[in-house]
Structures are given as C-alpha cells and as structure tokens.
Amino acid sequence: MLLIFFLLSIVVPGVFIWIGLKVIGRDRGIIRCGIANFAAFTITAALAAFLHLTPLVIFLPLIAFLVYLYVLKSLLDISFIEAFAATIIATVVVFIAALVMMIVFGVWLLFTPPPPHTMNVRF
C-alpha cells in the first residue's frame, strides 16, 4: 500500500506539470516531471524545516517557491520563466479539475437520499 501511495505521489503531480509543459511547448515525460516535482518538493521541505529556525521564516513562502522553481528548472532542463509558467498552468489545471469534481459530486449529492435516522434524539 505504501508503494502504491508513493508511486501515485510521483505520477499524479507529474501529470499536472506535464500538462503545464505541454501548454508552453516543452516535451518531457510524465515520470520525469513527477520525479522532478517530488525532488523539488523534498528539497524545498528540507530547506523550509531549516529556515523555520531562523528569522528568515518571514520570507519562507517566497524563498521556498523560488527554490522549488530552481530545482524544477534544473531537473527538467527548462528556463526559470518556463518553470514558473508550467507551475502556474499546472495550478490552474488542478483548480479546474477540483472545481469540476466539486460540481459533479455536489450535484450527485443533491439527488441522494439522506441517511435514515437510526436514533430518535430530542433536544
């Protein structure tokens, strides 16, 4: 089960970064994008853990995002601007996918009956 979760944590974000790269005209593999994203996240998390012990914690979100972009650009052999664009496009795609899923499951829940009351509770 752990192996399945680990593989999904590489492939699923890799698909979104791959879509972002396809939109800007770069061709990279899904697995390569997923491994680059996983490595960038791991390095950024380690840096964030270290920076929480310093006064730089105020700038941590900006520093972490820049480090993430730098590692992503280095591992995917793209420019900094392309890494930024791919990340923003991937974020928009994730947002749209989540919105569609909320609409689909929200409409589905409108037509499901409520659970039967198993206890007669009075307040």
Descriptive terms for the model:
mainly alpha, single chain
Task: Please explain how this structure is put together.
It is a single chain. With 123 residues, the protein is mainly α. 75% of the residues lie in helices and 0% in strands. It is built from four helices and no strands.
SS field, number of helical segments: 4
Low-confidence regions: none
Q: How far apart are the first and last residues' alpha carbons, in Å?
A: 44 Å
Using only CA atoms, what is the Rg?
20 Å
How much of the residues is beta strand, in percent? under 5%
Shape: extended
Structural class: mainly alpha
Topology as H/E string? HHHH
Main sheet properties: none
Outline of the structure:
This protein is mainly α. It has 4 helices and no strands.
